[in-house]
């Protein structure tokens, strides 16, 4: 089993990475592989609503990791998305990528356990956490919880390592993710996946 973890910070090994690293180390103790994908610090195009991806399954903009990360999530068993908090919300670059990753997924991420992780100095964490979870709850992805909201506090990686409650929350998140992945694997064999109706869209058009 494998979990893809997205580091949505421009800093490759900053506070968000430190939180994800704690999750990854605990997953490894449960026999689950993880891989951190860093989104980088270059400009990222937002979604242009061209809908080409609905025909091709890929975004027309290919100069950033959106398509590559989408394929990695499809091949993985679970997902963790981490972000720093900027002005009470997730990193805008990360959200631009996630819009373009999730929009053409069309159910391909369904039933993969997913979790959001946020890192902040002081505040804005719960709003950012809520924002990221919306990508999962519109995609039939079971959300993995922990003993507290999935967040760490600190201005530097060294600060985060002193946030013992935050680090424990990351480990508990990983333990719950590992448990869900193993239960889901058995459930697919014995119970199968839910069967959904054809999707209905409300447009109020006569």
Q: Would you write up a description of this structure?
A:
With 206 residues, this protein is of the alpha/beta class. The chain contains seven helices and six strands; from the N terminus they run βαβααββαβαβαα. The protein has helices at 15-29, 53-56, 66-75, 92-102, 125-137, 157-162, 164-190; strands at residues 2-7, 33-38, 78-86, 89-90, 114-120, 151-153. Strands 1, 2, 3, 4, 5 and 6 form a six-stranded mixed sheet that branches. Helix 1 (15-29) crosses helix 7 (164-190) and helix 3 packs across helix 4 (92-102).
Structural descriptors:
alpha/beta; 206 residues; 6 strands
What topology emerges from the helices and strands here?
Blueprint: E1 2-7, H1 15-29, E2 33-38, H2 53-56, H3 66-75, E3 78-86, E4 89-90, H4 92-102, E5 114-120, H5 125-137, E6 151-153, H6 157-162, H7 164-190
Parallel strand pairs: 1-2, 1-3, 3-5, 5-6
Antiparallel strand pairs: 3-4
Helix pairs in contact: 1-7, 3-4
């Amino acid at each position: 089993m494998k979990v893809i973890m997205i580091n949505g910070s421009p800093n490759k090994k900053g506070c968000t990475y430190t939180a994800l690293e704690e999750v990854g180390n605990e997953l490894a103790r449960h026999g689950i592989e993880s891989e951190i994908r860093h989104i980088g610090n270059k400009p990222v195009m937002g979604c242009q609503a061209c809908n080409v991806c609905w025909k091709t399954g890929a975004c027309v903009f290919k100069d950033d990791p959106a398509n590559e990360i989408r394929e990695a999530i499809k091949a993985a068993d679970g997902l963790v998305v981490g972000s720093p908090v900027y002005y009470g919300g997730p990193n805008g670059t990360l959200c631009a990528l996630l819009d373009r990753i999730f929009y053409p997924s069309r159910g391909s991420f369904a039933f993969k356990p997913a979790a959001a992780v946020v890192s902040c100095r002081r505040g804005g964490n719960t709003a950012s956490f809520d924002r990221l979870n919306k990508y999962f709850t519109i995609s039939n992805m079971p959300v993995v919880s922990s003993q507290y909201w999935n967040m760490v506090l600190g201005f530097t990686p060294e600060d985060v390592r002193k946030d013992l409650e935050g680090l424990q929350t990351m480990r508990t998140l990983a333990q719950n993710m590992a448990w869900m992945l193993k239960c889901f694997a058995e459930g697919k064999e014995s119970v199968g996946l839910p069967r959904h109706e054809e999707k209905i869209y409300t447009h109020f058009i006569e």
